[in-house]
Write a structure and sequence with these properties.
About 50% of the residues lie in helices and about 10% in strands. Strands 1-2-5-3-4 form a 5-stranded mixed β-sheet, sandwiched between helices.
């Protein structure tokens, strides 16, 4: 009976520490390594640009480790999802930081013009572009790509629709349509 009791105690202790041992094994195998691909609504545009929602601190650190040189943030500061000092964190990791706070309720032509200027300044730098949920970003990037990269309207719509539908947000649908009309003559 004493052996059964000791065996039970040993199994209980093992069960307490087994998850830690398993987690440590996963970490040493890289199974729980953080990457930019874990950013909410992550989308890889190409080898230079990725888009996503608000990254966590460890995901920004992963971006630096993956060779990203710039972060463009289109979200407004909101304590519900913003990092306390994203600018400081990004710069401390050796990356450039550009914050263009686009009001979700009222995107403007000036916001898009600022985004264009920043995008044209990135050169060949690997760049993470984010907002809260990758809605603002996919709208702005698709418009930018139509104007500067030769994307068709259907390719731009497909890119944006991979994350969200503008028709669900009339303010954004109107902004996108108005901007597409302005872009069309320039092409």
């Amino acid at each position: 009976m004493r052996h059964v009791f000791l065996l039970g105690c040993a199994l209980s202790v093992f069960r307490l520490f087994a998850p830690d041992v398993a987690n440590a094994a996963d970490e040493s195998n890289g199974a729980s390594a953080v990457s930019t691909e874990q950013i909410y609504n992550y989308h890889k545009v190409d080898d230079q640009f990725i888009t996503g929602g608000q990254p966590r601190e460890e995901q920004i650190k992963a971006a630096a480790a993956e060779g990203f040189r710039r972060v463009i943030n289109l979200a407004t500061i909101n304590p519900r999802y913003s990092l306390p000092d994203e600018d400081g964190l990004v710069r401390s990791l050796g990356m450039a930081y550009h914050h263009i706070p686009v009001d979700w309720e009222q995107p403007t032509d000036a916001d898009f013009a600022m985004f264009e200027r920043v995008m044209q300044s990135v050169g060949d730098d690997k760049t993470l572009i984010h907002c809260a949920a990758n809605f603002r970003v996919t709208a702005f990037y698709s418009l930018y790509a139509m104007k500067h990269l030769g994307w068709s309207q259907s390719k731009a719509e497909e890119f944006r629709a991979s994350i969200w539908k503008g028709s669900d947000f009339p303010v954004w649908e109107a902004f996108i349509q108005r901007t597409q009309v302005q872009i069309a003559p320039a092409r």
